[in-house]
Specification:
With 241 residues, the protein is α/β, with parallel strands linked by helices. The protein has one domain: P-loop containing nucleotide triphosphate hydrolases (Rossmann fold). 33% of the residues lie in helices and 27% in strands. The chain contains eight helices and eleven strands. The strands form two sheets. It has a seven-stranded mixed sheet with strand order 6-7-8-3-9-10-11, sandwiched between helices. Strands 2-1-4-5 form a four-stranded antiparallel sheet, covered by helices on one side. Helix 3 runs parallel beside helix 5. It starts with a strand and ends with a helix. 37% of the residues are buried.
Length: 241
């Protein structure tokens, strides 16, 4: 479904952020992308979503290279959720207005379905009249998740979406992602430095170091198998946290 081929990117200062990145996510698959902070994970997510331009390489979705003139169609099928839940929500809008906004461009869901959708992400109906400042971090991230899935994407990119939440809320959000994957066959690229979350969600992961993919690991009998020493040490360090 998603294929990233030889993506490279440098900032103006000449610092290379991504170097010949190759990555793929199949239909209905949950794939992890892990690495230390600053290794380029979020930049790669932005390049995939065409929020940043690559210096070279290409991104393909459903076997077609993403082109600027086709972005509306691409965004119908691919959505992203970022780490900072508050930044994605207009502080002056109620939850109902926030849910209306994506439907102005992607008219797939009617207002009458909001209550059912809120129930799916375990939020009460009266939250529709609340402002973001009245919501907890977990509630804000659920609203961001709901905004993304309202348009029924085939692929969801999650960029560190549980890192700022407590363990209980993290588990609830991750369980929601698993439900969406099973019920809608929605593919997920899950970007995180949380080994427990990645291990719980994913059957396959890519490991990044300094802008490069250094390993692709598969889970067998609930254990990931590594070919790269850095990847193995990274996971050992994560297990100790």
């Amino acid at each position: 479904m998603l294929r990233v081929e030889n993506i490279s990117k440098s900032f103006r200062a000449g610092q290379q952020v991504l170097a010949n990145i190759n990555l793929a996510v199949a239909e209905g698959e949950i794939v992890g992308l892990v690495g230390e902070s600053g290794c380029g994970k979020s930049t790669l997510a932005k390049v995939i979503m065409q929020l940043e331009s690559a210096d070279k390489g290409a991104v393909f979705f459903q076997n077609q290279q993403i082109a600027k003139k086709q972005m509306n169609t691409f965004y119908d099928n691919c959505q992203i959720i970022f780490q900072n839940a508050s930044n994605a929500l207009n502080p002056k809008w109620t939850v109902k207005e926030l849910l209306h906004e994506p439907l102005q461009h992607h008219a797939k869901v009617q207002d009458t379905q909001f209550e059912r959708m809120l129930e799916m992400v375990k939020l009460p109906n009266d939250i529709l009249h609340a402002l973001p400042s009245e919501l907890s971090g977990g509630e804000k991230q659920r609203i961001n998740l709901l905004r993304s899935i309202l348009v029924e994407p085939k692929l969801l990119i999650c960029d560190e979406i549980v890192s700022s939440l407590d363990r209980l809320i993290q588990r609830e959000i991750i369980d929601l992602l698993l439900t969406l994957n099973k019920e809608r066959n929605m593919a997920i690229l899950f970007i995180s430095h949380d080994l427990k979350a990645v291990s719980y969600l994913c059957q396959r992961i890519y490991v990044m170091k300094a802008g490069k993919i250094v390993d692709e690991c598969y889970k067998e009998q609930n254990t990931f198998h590594f070919t790269d020493n850095y990847a193995q040490k990274l996971f050992q360090a994560m297990e100790m946290q």
